[in-house]
Specification:
The chain is an alpha/beta fold and 335 residues long. The protein has two domains: 116 residues, Rossmann fold; 186 residues, 2-Layer Sandwich (Dihydrodipicolinate Reductase, domain 2). Helix content is 34%, strand content 27%. The protein contains nine helices and 15 strands. Strands 14-13-12-11-7-10-9-8-15 form a nine-stranded mixed sheet. A six-stranded parallel sheet has the order 3-2-1-4-5-6, with helices on both faces. Helix 4 runs parallel beside helix 5, helix 5 packs antiparallel against helix 9 and helix 7 packs across helix 9. The site of nicotinamide-adenine-dinucleotide (NAD) has 22 residues, from helix 1. The site of nicotinamide-adenine-dinucleotide has 22 residues, from helix 1.
Length: 335
């Protein structure tokens, strides 16, 4: 396949080399300014072009949209109208109407739209999902997840602090991964209650801290805490069931060793856990790319598709609505 990339920042640097390893050709890349695209173009052996339309028009089969969220919709929609498959970074875009349009355009043009939800492809979360699907912990009763980082000193100067560019604050930027995982495990919840804050004005007016609780039709509670004030990076996704618990802890690197932990309910025996530690680098980007590649080949919808991108965006906006209106929001009514 011939691939194009829009954006030449952190995500393009992560995804570009994976595309090359899979023996596809990267044809063109752009960034906000041509000069910003040149160094990565050189590394990836492709042509730097001056704007995203030139990438879309460079004879490509698939496009990686690795820009900040405010331009995800426009770029993805134009590409899909030309029959180009799109892997678009999360959050899918910045408004529900754009998200709806993106999903609709993919369907109308019979192309794959995948949202960048790489956390689904971490081996530890796949192990946890396997245990849960096998019934090892019985029926899910509740989930608790934490995604915490320490904000970079100059975060105020980044697009992540600009509400005209970002779709939201920390809950939207990182917490959305936990929301996507929640939906993967228990489907769409019915209700949400959320409190956010900006206590240290790091990315004001966007939140730097969010505590969110969802409730499903089966009364399962899901609590998510997302923060840029955690200072030591932390990721955990803990699933509790009637017969035990299955936990993902760490993401490798600065988040600590990636582990999957299984514990069984046993009121009398000594506490015992099955702990699986995953070594080596982060394979999630490679596995996510392979899923996208395979979907293009087979026409089968990928995990973390456009609809998943749409739904997770809807969940975050409903959480913000709860914070704004100081009430529990019914997700069946939230738009
Ligand atoms: N899955 C993950 O874990 C993960 C991690 C980080 C970022 N992201 C997401 O990836 C996206 C990009 O984030 P990033 O960290 O790579 O940002 P970044 O700031 O490092 O890079 C953004 C790139 O987009 C370019 N750009 C901006 N506006 C443009 C435009 N109009 N046309 C063409 N290029 C444009 C910039 O020049 C830059 O090269 C965001 O949506 C972010 O939320 C996902």
């Amino acid at each position: 396949m011939k691939i194009g990339i829009v954006g030449a920042g952190l995500q393009a640097k992560r995804r570009g080399p994976i595309v090359l390893q899979s023996k596809h050709e990267i044809v063109s890349i752009t960034a906000e300014h041509l000069d910003l695209a040149k160094p990565l173009a050189k590394e990836l052996g492709c042509k730097p072009v001056s704007n995203w339309m030139d990438v879309v028009n460079s004879g490509i089969d698939a496009l990686l949209v690795c820009t900040p969220p405010h331009v995800h919709a426009q770029i993805s929609i134009e590409a899909m109208k030309k029959g180009i498959h799109v892997l678009c970074e999360k959050p899918l875009c910045t408004t529900m109407s754009d998200a709806e349009q993106m999903v609709k355009t993919a369907k109308e043009n019979n192309v794959i739209l995948k949202c960048g939800f790489n956390h689904r492809y971490h081996p530890a979360i796949r192990q946890v999902k396997k245990w849960v699907d096998e019934g090892q912990i019985g029926e899910i009763t509740f989930i608790r997840s934490i995604y915490g980082i320490g904000a970079r000193p100059d975060v105020q100067k980044e697009w992540r602090s600009n509400p005209k560019i970002a779709a939201g604050g920390q809950l939207m930027e990182q917490g959305i991964h936990c929301i996507d995982l929640m939906r993967w495990f228990v489907g769409n919840p019915n209700e949400v209650v959320c409190l956010t804050s900006t206590p240290h004005s790091l990315i004001e007016p966007l939140e730097d801290n969010a505590f969110v609780t969802f409730k499903t039709e089966k009364s399962q509670l899901v609590n998510i805490h997302s923060s840029i004030l955690q200072w030591k990076n932390h990721f955990s996704f803990e699933v509790f069931g009637t017969g035990g618990y299955a936990i993902m802890d760490g993401l490798g690197g600065s988040y600590g060793v990636e582990k999957a932990i299984l514990g069984k309910r046993d009121p009398f025996g000594p506490f015992a856990e099955n702990i699986v530690e995953f070594r080596g680098g982060d394979v999630s980007w490679k596995l996510e790319w392979e899923e996208f590649e395979n979907s293009i080949k087979t026409g089968k919808e990928p995990e973390g598709n456009g609809t998943d991108g749409y739904e997770s965006l809807r969940m975050v906006f409903a959480a913000y609505q709860s914070q704004r209106e100081k009430r529990t929001v019914n997700l069946n009514e939230a738009k």
